[in-house]
Amino acid sequence: MADTTTQDYSFVKPEVGASDDTWGEKLNANWDSADSLLSGMASDIEGKVDDSQVLTNVPANAVFTDTVYSKPTSEDIGYINGLQTALDTLDTAVDLNTASRTALGTPATTGIALLNDETASDARTTLGLGTAAQANVTTSRTDATAGRVFKVGDNVGITFGSNSNGEFTRFPDGTMICTKNVGSTDSGISTSSYPSTFITAPKTVGTALTGGELSTSVVITSQTTTQFGVRVYDSNNNQLVRNVSIIAIGRWK
C-alpha cells in the first residue's frame, strides 16, 4: 500500500512497514508545514484583536466584532428588558390556570375569551353587546336619521314647538306628540287643528277638565292629519260644554 495524505492539509502519512529511509524526511516535511500554518494563524489573530481593548471580565451578553467586543448600551438593555416584561405579562394573561381565573373572577375569564375570539361578532357576543353596538351614532344635534344612536349631547335633536293650536314635540325617529286644550259644545262637533301636521292620522285621546259629573265621555271624531273633532257626554248621554285636554301621538316623518 502506498503513502496516503491527510484530508485537509495533505500531510504525508508514510505507509506502515514501508518507506524505508524516507519516513523521517516525510515527517519532517509535515512538521514544517504545520509550523507554517500555526505561524500564519497567530499573525492573523494578532492583526484582528487589539490586546489593549479586550477586557478580562467579558459579560455573557457581549457582542464580538472583528477587533473588540462591544458591550450593549443601557438603551439596548432597556429594550430587551421591556420586551421580556411584555412577554411575561402576555404569557400570564393567556396561560391563567383554573385557580387564577377563579380568584380573579369573571373579568379574567372574559379577557381570555376575547383573546380566543376570531371575529368582531364573536367579541360582541362575549361582551354581551346587542345590535346597538353596530349602529351609527348621530353626527350632529339635529341629526334625525332613523336607526342612529344618540351621541352624548345630541339628544337635543328632539324638537319642541308651540303655536296658537297647542304644543308639539318631534323625536328624531319620526314620532310626534301634540297637546292642546279645546272646548266642546252642547251640540254638534267642535273641530280643532293640531299644532303640527302628521303624515298619517294620529291616535288622539281627550280628558274633560271641568264639570261636576261623576262620569263623562270624550269622543274624538273626524280625524285627519291636520285636525280632529271632539264631543263630551255625561252618563245620561247628554252632550256637554266642557274644556278638554287633548293628546295626539303619531308620526311627523
Short description:
The protein is of the alpha+beta class. The protein contains 5 helices and 12 strands.
What does this protein look like?
- It contains 5 helices and 12 strands.
- It is α+β, with helices and mostly antiparallel strands and 253 residues long.
- The strands form 4 sheets. It has a 5-stranded antiparallel sheet, with no helix packed on it. A 3-stranded antiparallel sheet has the order 8-11-10, with no helix packed on it. The protein has a two-stranded antiparallel ribbon with strand order 1-2.
- Strand 1 (4-5) and strand 2 (12-13) form a beta hairpin.
- The longest helix is centred in the N-terminal third of the chain and has 26 residues, at 23-48.
Describe this protein with a few key phrases.
253 residues; rod-shaped; alpha+beta; 12 strands; three-stranded antiparallel sheet; single chain; five-stranded antiparallel sheet
What's the helix and strand layout?
Layout: E1 4-5, E2 12-13, H1 23-48, E3 63-64, E4 69-70, H2 74-94, H3 98-104, H4 106-116, H5 120-127, E5 159-163, E6 166-170, E7 175-183, E8 190-193, E9 203-208, E10 216-221, E11 227-234, E12 243-251
Antiparallel strand pairs: 1-2, 3-4, 5-6, 6-7, 7-12, 8-11, 9-12, 10-11
Contiguous uncertain segments of 5+ residues: none
Tell me the span between the first and last alpha carbons.
111 Å
Number of strands: 12
User: What's the total helix number?
Assistant: 5
- Morphology call: rod-shaped
Major sheet details: 5 strands, antiparallel
Mind telling me the C-alpha Rg? 49 Å
- The quaternary state of the protein chains shown equals single chain
Helix and strand sequence: EEHEEHHHHEEEEEEEE
- Mean residue pLDDT: 76
Strand order of the largest sheet: 5-6-7-12-9
Give the helix level as a range of percent.
Answer: 25-40%
User: How much of the sequence is in beta strands?
Assistant: 15-25%
What structural class should be given to the helix and strand makeup?
A: alpha+beta
